[in-house]
Amino acid sequence: MVCLVSEYCCGMKPCDVLLWRRPPVTGAIFGTLLITISLFMLMEYTIVTFTCRVLQLLLATGFTYSLTKGETITEDDIYRAVDKFVECLAPVLTKALQRGYHIVMWRDRRVSACVLLFSISVGMLGNLLSDMMLLFTTIVFLFTAPIAYEKNKSAVDSFLLKMKETVNEHLGSFQTRFDSTRKRE
Predict the structure, then answer these.
(1) CA distance linking residue 141 with residue 133, whole number of Å
(2) In terms of domains, do 145 and 173 share one?
(3) Segment 143-181, tens digit of pLDDT
(4) What digits encode the pLDDT tens for the residues 35-81?
(5) Residue 137 contacts by C-beta under 8 Å, 6 or more apart in sequence?
(6) In this structure, are 91 and 130 located in the same domain?
(7) How far apart, in Å, do the first and last CA atoms of the chain sit?
(8) Is 132 left (phi over 0), alpha (psi -120 to 50) or beta?
(9) Is residue 32, in this structure, part of any structural domain at all?
(10) How many domains does the chain have?
């Protein structure tokens, strides 16, 4: 048995997914996320209820599969599928953990400051919106913003350049004040 997730997603980067470079894969991920969020948000599911429904669906599928006496899946098939999935996931997860470590340890101060400001902004938005609505909005934004960017690249690039200059100016003044305070001590 071939692990379909590994077969379709192996070698893809997150930007490939968000830029819809493989529409079937991106559509499946986007649809799965939206369906899951809608279950939690609209039907007011809890994690326990959702987990029980998934378990019930798996049991019903397994029961139907055993009645029809379809192709049997051996333990070796399961091990191969898991190994292939882990093989594809390990480099991505390792890189993400390394990047997270560098952000948390302030190795790149600009990135860490941006993450801090982003978390404060999202915290403020979280006070105004429910968690599920914020998650829903974020996922829709993640999957639609790259396409909108590609269509309006010149306007967005000029705006981002102005924004970057402003942020660098403020961060530079903050760094200067920080350094002068350190020298006084």
Answers:
(1) 12
(2) no
(3) 888 888 888 999 989 998 998 888 888 877 777 776 777
(4) 888 877 777 777 777 788 889 998 998 888 888 877 777 889 889 98
(5) 129
(6) yes
(7) 65
(8) alpha
(9) yes
(10) 2
Residue 172 counted as domain residue: yes
Measured in degrees and rounded to the nearest 5, phi and psi for residue 96 equal -65, -40
- The Cα 27–Cα 33 span in angstroms is 10
Based on the fold, state whether residues 166 and 147 are members of the same structural domain: no
pTM: 0.49
Q: Which residues contact 129 (CB under 8 A, 6 or more apart)?
A: 137
> Is residue 20 within 8 Å of 26, Cβ to Cβ?
yes
Nearest to 20 by CA among 142, 128, 114: 142
Spatial separation of the C-alpha atoms in residues 2 and 101, rounded to whole Å? 34
- Listed in sequence order, the DSSP H helices in 69-129 are 75-104, 109-128
pLDDT, tens digit, for every residue of 80-103? 988 988 888 888 899 999 999 999
Same domain, 133 and 103: yes
Helix (H) or strand (E) holding 143, with range, is helix 131-151
